[in-house]
Design brief:
Layout lengths: L1 E4 L3 E4 L5 H17 L2 H18 L1 E2 L10 E3 L6 H7 L11
Parallel strand pairs: 1-4
Antiparallel strand pairs: 1-2, 2-3
Helix pairs in contact: 1-2
Length: 94
C-alpha cells in the first residue's frame, strides 16, 4: 500500500502491517473524540513514526497514486478531522 505523509513524501507499507497501524489509529480517534490534545499529538507522532519504520520510502522522483494520505506531524486536531473517514485514517483490516 502506498502511503503519503503530507509534507514528507510516500512510503510503501506492506498490508500485513495495517492491523498494527489500525490500533494506533483507534487510539488517535479516541483521543480526538475526548478532546485529549496532548494524547492526540503523541499518538499522531507514534502513528507517523510507525509508518516510517515499517514502510519503504519511495524515491522523490516517483509519484505513485497514494492509497492512504496521512496528516503532517504538525497537523492540528481540526485538520486531522477533515481527513478522517468513517473508520479513521487507516482502513479497517478484514
Amino acid at each position: 500500500m502506498i502511503v503519503r505523509i503530507m509534507g514528507e513524501g510516500q512510503v510503501e507499507v506492506a498490508e500485513s502491517h495495517l492491523a498494527e497501524l489500525d490500533k494506533l489509529d483507534d487510539e488517535l480517534l479516541a483521543e480526538m473524540e475526548s478532546g485529549d490534545g496532548a494524547g492526540f499529538r503523541r499518538t499522531l507522532h507514534a502513528l507517523l513514526e510507525k509508518v516510517r519504520e515499517l514502510g519503504e520510502p519511495l524515491p522523490d522522483a516517483s509519484l505513485e497514486p497514494s492509497e492512504l494520505i496521512l496528516p503532517a506531524p504538525d497537523a492540528t486536531l481540526e485538520e486531522v478531522r477533515e481527513l478522517l473517514g468513517e473508520s479513521g485514517l487507516i482502513p479497517p483490516v478484514a
